[in-house]
Amino acid sequence: ALGKAVFTKVGWMDKLELLAKKPAAPAAEQSRIFEQYTAFLQRLSTEVPLILFLDDLQWADNASLNLLFHLGRRIENSRILILGAYRPDDVALGRNGDRHPLEPVVHELTRYNGDVSIDLDAIPETVGRQFVDALLDAEPNGLGEAFRRALFHQTGGHALFTVELIQNMQERGDLIRNSGGRWVENPSLDWHALPARVEGVIAERIDRLDEAMKEMLTVASVEGEEFTAEVVARVQAMAERETIRQLSGELDRQYRLVRAQGLARFGNLRLSLYRFLHNLFQQYLYGSLGEAERVYLHRDVGEVIETLFADQTEEVAAQLARHFEEAGIPGKAVTYRLQAGTKAWRLSAHQEAIAHLTRGLELLADISPGPERVRLELGLQTALGRVLVATQGYASLEVQRTFARAHSLARALDGASQEIPVVYGLCAYDLVRAELQRAHEKGKQLLDLTQQVGEDGYALGCQLVMGAAAAHLGELDRARQHLEEVVARYDANRHWDLAYYLGQDPGVGALSYLSFVLWHQGYPDQAVAAKNAALDLARELDHPYSLGFAASFAAMLLHRMRQVAECEKQAAMALELGEQGPFPLWQAMGGMAHGWAIAHQGRTEEGISEIKKGLAVWEGTGAQLALPYLHTLVAEAYLAAGKREEGLKALEASFDCPEEVWWLPEQHRVYAELLRLVPGAEVEAEASLRKALDSARKWKMRYFELRAAMSLARLLRKQGHAAEGRDLLAECYAWFTEGFDTPDLQEARELLEDLT
Length: 756
Hints:
Layout: H1 2-9, H2 12-20, H3 27-45, E1 50-54, H4 62-74, E2 80-84, H5 88-92, H6 102-113, H7 125-136, H8 145-155, H9 159-172, E3 175-177, E4 183-185, H10 196-206, H11 211-223, E5 226-228, H12 229-236, H13 240-254, E6 258-266, E7 269-276, H14 279-287, H15 291-309, H16 317-326, H17 330-346, H18 350-363, H19 371-392, H20 397-413, H21 416-432, H22 436-453, H23 456-472, H24 476-489, H25 492-495, H26 498-502, H27 506-521, H28 524-541, H29 544-560, H30 564-580, H31 584-599, H32 604-620, H33 627-641, H34 644-652, H35 664-675, H36 682-698, H37 702-718, H38 722-735, H39 743-755
Parallel strand pairs: 1-2
Antiparallel strand pairs: 3-4, 5-7, 6-7
Helix pairs in contact: 4-6, 7-8, 7-9, 8-9, 11-12, 11-14, 12-13, 12-15, 15-16, 16-17, 17-18, 17-19, 18-19, 19-20, 19-21, 20-21, 21-22, 21-23, 22-23, 23-24, 23-27, 24-27, 27-28, 27-29, 28-29, 29-30, 29-31, 30-31, 31-32, 31-33, 32-33, 33-34, 33-35, 34-35, 35-36, 35-37, 36-37, 37-38, 37-39, 38-39
């Protein structure tokens, strides 16, 4: 009765304390308790499924772990799930100098039940990222993909780190609520400030290491989130095998601070790769360094990497640039920024290339004036100009300024070979700004220079510029001569890298332009063959910008040939390539061709809108080349929609480029067709069609002559002069020797039959 009275007056904690004061139960008594506990859970699980969650098992005493093992062996056929969580790094340290009692329990449960463990540090990235997104979206926010990626990169999806980092950002104002109550980024957001609790957790784990291991990891943190055992070993003057043993042994499996990533080969060089298990470990160690110590370690790491890679430094140029910049060695930092930018450009990573090259130019301020500084700036400006051609277009003012600065630097060095790349860039700029005669003359002068110094690749580029300029000037025979010279001399096995030095492949460019010239001259089958060859070569080279060039020109050739469905398909490909680059010129050209195609399939308003959008992008790059053609494209769409005044207005702008004549016959013909949409304009329309016919004959543009003859023959029939129209069209049609399955020649044949 007394015992009962006592237990009714005290709580459950008091009961446990009273039990704890009793002498320890013998093994038989403990076994009986385990059986009773198991039987109770099994009986309860017949009524409702049970989940038993045990957290922080690294702190559990021996008796509790024995109970866990007993339950694990006895609940196999019960509706009971036991979840236990523990920190492997704590268990790996043992207990009181002995093996941790949890280890044999886990091993025995694994032996009886198979793999029962889940390493939460090794969960797939997708799961960790899902956690980050779910945590952020628990409250209204406007945090975009870039922030979410950065947060996941920092924490790896680690729950404690992620929660604490977000809370810390909110407290210090890196995340703020906007007027709508949604969390957004503060522009001054600092990713390097660690929350006190996170820093405490990391510090506690790092402080378990002996000084040698701490120093090893500190050197690794200077190399970066990913590091190599060989670099750490050389900086520490350690044996490489011993360094790998410690990294893969204690620091990976025991302390769980790093993780092996395997081997990487660079030619004959083999490196052992590791990474910090969490980015915050690297950040903490790196942040613990003093400024002077950091400078010297960056120098040491940079010099070791430089020695290891010897003549392969382009593979690690970005890392070397960072190390030597942090070490205060600007000459080497700029050299490797140039290498890194050139490598990124060759991989079509244009924004990354621009970032490296621009940073290199900024670092020049720390280098004393002299020939070496001029040489470095010339390399940076030349490379930057090439990249800007792809991202902004040939006619961008920034492209012109960059190449002009490079030209003045090349002259200062007084070397013809240094001038050639930048003068070529200026030639291309003049071409796309529609300074056609100037581009042709400058290309001719540069061609002579390339032949003097034996620059075969740039000679092909000059021939391409000259051929393109002659084509737009309407000098088709001269254009064809230049372009066929490029095709004849081009060797894909020998010239595969020209696409990177010239900005685009000259073989692809020459074949694409040649397809236009051949079509204008009346050889549609040969034009299609050249177009296909350009696409095949671009795919073989795997150079995105050149492929965008070939795809865009192919779409425009299909427009010229009035193959609407094929044009739409090819234009969609060109548009996609342009957007992926992004390459604004090919994005614009693909969009305009696509707009024309859908406008001629009944979706006129949508098509006209797309053409105008593409035209705005084209002109926004500074490009003036091909504007007569592109404005006529808009007028054609209005003609298909039966909108006379809008078409005539669009066509007015096409006559503002007197130097570019290779679309002039078609401009006059479309003008006449727009006039004829309203009765009473036959006289003016006939005059315009005769201009079209005369100019086509003058410039030997057989296809435009055929189209003008068809339009004039229809008008003459309406005026009662069918015989004159028939004779005129028959003479023109008789000239053709190929392409009789093309829409224009089929239409001409049918019209001749009607007139006869």
